[in-house]
Amino acid sequence: MGKIDYSAPGPFTSLGEAAGSVVAADPLEICEPVHALFLHPDEQPGKDMPAERQVEKNVRPAGALARLLLALDPAPLTEARVAEKRVVGTCRHFAVMSCALLRDRGVAARVRCGFGMYFEVGLGMDHWVTEFWAGGRWVRVDTEIFGQERGVDPRDLKPGEFLTGGEAWSAYRRGEVDGAKFGVPGTENWGPSEIRGNVVRDLAALNNVETLPWDEWGRMAEAYEGKTGADYDELLDEVAVVCAGDDLDAVAALYQHPDLRVPDELIR
Predict the structure, then answer these.
(1) pLDDT band per the 50, 70, 90 thresholds, residue 46
(2) Considering the entire predicted model, what is its pTM?
(3) How many domains does the chain contain in total?
(4) Which domain holds residue 124?
(5) Which residues of 201-238 are buried (b: 16+ CB within 10 A; e: fewer)?
(6) Alpha-carbon gap, residue 66 to 17, rounded angstroms
(7) 179 touches 195 (CB < 8 A)
(8) What phi and psi, each to the nearest 5 degrees, are found at residue 112?
């Protein structure tokens, strides 16, 4: 599968001491419990979440997330938790843990950063999902919404139901979507710059570096402030094409660009 190995743990997808805890073989069965491992920061499990626990959403490695989960409840990671025993996290945490559990069983899997098109009609919501290789194709799953009614099958998302950063960017550049309708729910962060950010984050994820949703590097901060120009947009055009082509040698090569590669200080 080229220079990038999706069947082995990456910097953020090693389960550490929890490795080997997965016994299921079917990818969907492996993913099943993940929807009940995390809790969004604005969700309350029946009582106020202690303020000090909000920092859990900033944890990057799956191994550290696994330790937090086991400290709250020593049951195997394959078992769902009640709300009070879940780790505070975002959609990125669901996707990363799913990827880590799949790789723990040797299943080729990867995380994708982009936009869910099934949360609000006509809006692209900032979101992360997981893909695993089966039947000669990448099966795209949203483990966060397993068991929810969203009008989609989260166990096999159809084309267009989730757009990666690159897919959304290409559609925007072709004039097929309104960039103003893409952004982060509950914030003022909407517009083409939000798509620009997720183009770069998705490239990093394809290189096994699944950053936090708010991590910024290279020229991303300038892009969010509207201070980048045509040259940066043309670079993102290239990123979108390379990511869509799924030529892993090209994906790995483009990631070496100084404006695109995640700095070492964020990989910890």
Answers:
(1) low
(2) 0.95
(3) 1
(4) 16-266
(5) bbbbbbbbbbbbbebbbbbbebbbeeebeeebbebbee
(6) 9
(7) yes
(8) -125, 140
